[in-house]
Amino acid sequence: MKTYNDMYLDVRRKLRSSAVSSHDLEARLIVAHASGKTREEYVASNRFYVTDPEIERTVNDMVSRRLSGEPVAYIVGEWEFYGLPMVVNESVLIPRVDTELLAEVSINLLKRRGWRTRVLDICAGSGCVGLSIAANVPNCRIVLADISSEALAVCRMNMLKNKLTRQVTAIEVDATEPAPALLGSFDVIVSNPPYIPTLDIQNLDSSVRDFEPVGALDGGPDGLYIIRAIANNWSSLLKPSGNLVIECGTGQADAVSEIMGDCGYKDIKVHTDTGGIERVVVGTLKYNN
Prior knowledge:
With 289 residues, this protein is α/β, with parallel strands linked by helices. The chain contains eleven helices and nine strands. The strands form two sheets. A seven-stranded mixed beta sheet has the order 5-4-3-6-7-9-8, sandwiched between helices. A two-stranded antiparallel sheet has the order 1-2. The radius of gyration is 21 Å and the shape is elongated.
């Protein structure tokens, strides 16, 4: 009979032999999830014997899925972002550490603004950015917006999971269409939009290309189609001196800055992520277009 630690070591060996770079973390996540334990409960019991054979069968099934290329976040159905647990499935992108910079920049902007701020998170996906803002700026109100009803269902699960339903709402909108005036005005509009050029999607890692939703990746021929639409169509909802905060891809920051400038944004600033990539562009709307 195996202990939980034996099972973890078996899973780690299989993942490592298949060149899974984060084999230690993923093995722990798989064994903990299959056994219905939190990571803390798993650590506390890893010397105990596994008495339920169904757990080992579940682990083996999960490992097979991982070795076929499926991301571990979809297998366990959850991923952490900015310290919050997020439900994820194939309807939404898996939250990336790079995107935590988008949340951090937005949080810092809002903390300087004081009370009763409103934020629109457009192309919200799982809602990870807007919910992280809500958790760290408790006086603000967040609207999560996405074109995908499936993604919005995930947003609502995450609102409940993180007990943020009093601060956050979720609505279906198309970022490429004119902004509906009924949404009201916002102090900050934040977005992690699709920004991968269409032809580059085929060159992405298979775990992204074959499993994550292409609609959340494809930014059109140059990757900037959705970003242009947001800058052009949604500034009408920003209050004077409101901020537009956009995540972009490698080498896109100059083009995004130019797009914002053409749409009337001033004091444009670029923020670099921990990998040295210019990842987040912030513009201030000095006057409404």
